[in-house]
Write a structure and sequence with these properties.
Layout (H helix, E strand, L loop, with lengths): L9 H4 L1 H4 L3 H27 L19 H25 L6 H25 L5 H13 L4 H31 L8 H7 L8 H21 L1 H11 L12 H28 L7 H30 L4 H11 L2 H22 L6 H28 L17 H21 L9 H10 L1
Helix pairs in contact: 3-16, 4-5, 4-9, 4-11, 4-15, 5-7, 5-11, 5-16, 7-9, 7-10, 9-10, 10-11, 11-12, 11-15, 12-13, 12-14, 14-15
Length: 440
């Protein structure tokens, strides 16, 4: 099935590039405001060290050296992986319904990977450590260092996604050049350097194979593999250890990514009157996927809870009991469950569908998945097999510095889309080309 975008012309496609509205300025102000708040707190961290986050050593925050920074890192990486999986599936599986949002998913991947990298940068304390410690040790320590694996995964996926995106952009920029601003001619010249229409078929094959590699790598090696392996292969951490972490991480990634795509697509549709370009059928389809991935996420959470409290080893049982006694955990589960129920309800009763409610549910899911990942990290450290933290007072509470970093990365994503939407079409030309040919 394909989306009917008959009547949508190329002017509609480049409308974000050609218009400059008060809404755009307001969004720009919000993005800079969020980034500014984060930079204000980050300067304090640079001046005084990680002590301002209570993550400076093993004895602070109830024995938790990892907290919101690492939870948000996992969250952003998951959003990135889930976003590019959707875009790759559109090409590999012929899911033409979602073609209008495929590039938005690719751009979300680039933005989310950038934010994940930011959390690595700020969590190592001093930025110069990446140059003096991480990069020199990368070739010899990558096989057993979690930090090296993180950097490797993000770098590999960033290169894949950027290549994937660059190849498809050349086609659009070449054919829409007369509608793009002349002031950006140097940028477009770089993007289309050496381009001829003869390369289109070759590029299509290249993009297909990159998409195939992404589909294989994401669930098996990246957010279904490497990232959860960093936790699940540590038997000393009862709350982390186990084979369920791979599929659990992947389900959270897909759930979060679909939520992010819904929010971004709805924002562009509202801001630029793209009701025909991104019709309700796209959002209704995304709602079904959101419901399905939420169901998988909740099912895997149930698996962890049941196996953690029924005849489990003492430390795992204790970690599970603490988790289910934490109100925030049930808030996270409840938000995801609510979104799942709404998504399935709109399938049974289409009259219940409302794009504003769907966006609200997507925001709730993003908060819920972030909370679950932070609790996963923190409680895994607090309830280990050994007594390193015995007698350590206090409990972990995210500091304003950490919270500002999450807000700042959200601002980075908003700013990224605001800037990119003024340079290139954020919806592929292919999304409307077939209908133009039919009309002709």
């Amino acid at each position: 099935m394909s989306v009917d975008v008959t009547g949508v012309d190329r002017e509609t496609l480049v409308r974000p590039i050609q218009t400059f509205t008060k809404r755009y300025l307001a969004a720009l102000a919000v993005a800079f405001g969020l980034i500014g708040v984060w930079l204000f707190f980050y300067v304090q961290q640079l001046q005084h060290g990680l002590i301002v986050t209570n993550l400076a050593d093993w004895g602070s925050g109830g024995g938790v050296p990892w907290g919101l920074y690492i939870g948000a890192f996992i969250w952003w990486v998951g959003i990135a992986h889930g976003g590019i999986i959707l875009s790759a599936a559109v090409r590999l599986l012929g899911m033409d319904t979602y073609q209008p949002v495929a590039r938005l998913a690719e751009l979300l991947t680039i933005a989310a990977l950038t934010c994940a990298g930011v959390f690595i940068l700020i969590h190592v304390g001093r930025p110069d450590r990446l140059v003096t410690s991480v990069l020199p040790a990368w070739p010899t320590r990558v096989q057993w260092s979690p930090l090296m694996w993180d950097v490797t995964v993000i770098t590999a996926y960033f290169v894949l996604t950027a290549t994937y995106l660059a190849l498809t952009i050349r086609y659009d920029v070449h054919r829409l050049r007369d509608r793009l601003p002349n002031v950006l001619e140097p940028v477009y010249r770089v993007i289309t350097v050496g381009y001829t229409e003869k390369e289109d078929q070759v590029v299509e094959r290249m993009v297909w194979w990159i998409a195939f590699a992404i589909i294989i790598m994401a669930p098996l090696l990246l957010h279904g593999g490497v990232i959860p392996w960093l936790f699940s292969l540590l038997p000393s951490m009862a709350g982390w250890h186990g084979g369920v972490q791979g599929p659990s991480f992947l389900s959270i990634a897909l759930t979060s990514a679909v939520s992010g795509i819904i929010i971004i697509s709805a924002a562009f549709r509202y801001a630029y009157g793209w009701d025909e370009l991104i019709p309700d059928t796209v959002f209704q389809g995304l709602a079904k996927w959101l419901g399905f991935f939420s169901l998988i996420f909740l099912w895997l959470q149930l698996q962890q809870v049941i196996t953690g409290i029924f005849a489990a080893p003492t430390t795992l049982q204790h970690a599970t009991e603490v988790k289910i006694a934490t109100p925030l955990y049930w808030v996270a589960i409840g938000l995801v469950a609510l979104a799942m129920l709404y998504a399935f309800a709109t399938s049974l009763r289409p009259e219940l569908y409302d794009i504003r409610v769907l966006v609200g549910m997507s925001v709730a899911v993003l908060f819920g998945t972030l909370a679950e990942k932070v609790l996963f990290v923190v409680e895994g450290l607090q309830h280990a097999h050994f007594d390193l933290y015995a007698g350590v007072p206090g409990a972990y509470i995210p500091s304003p510095v950490e919270i500002s970093a999450v807000l700042g990365t959200v601002g980075i994503v908003v700013l990224f889309f605001l800037v990119v939407s003024k340079v290139i079409p954020v919806v592929e030309l292919h999304a409307i080309e077939d209908h133009e040919e039919v009309d002709a």
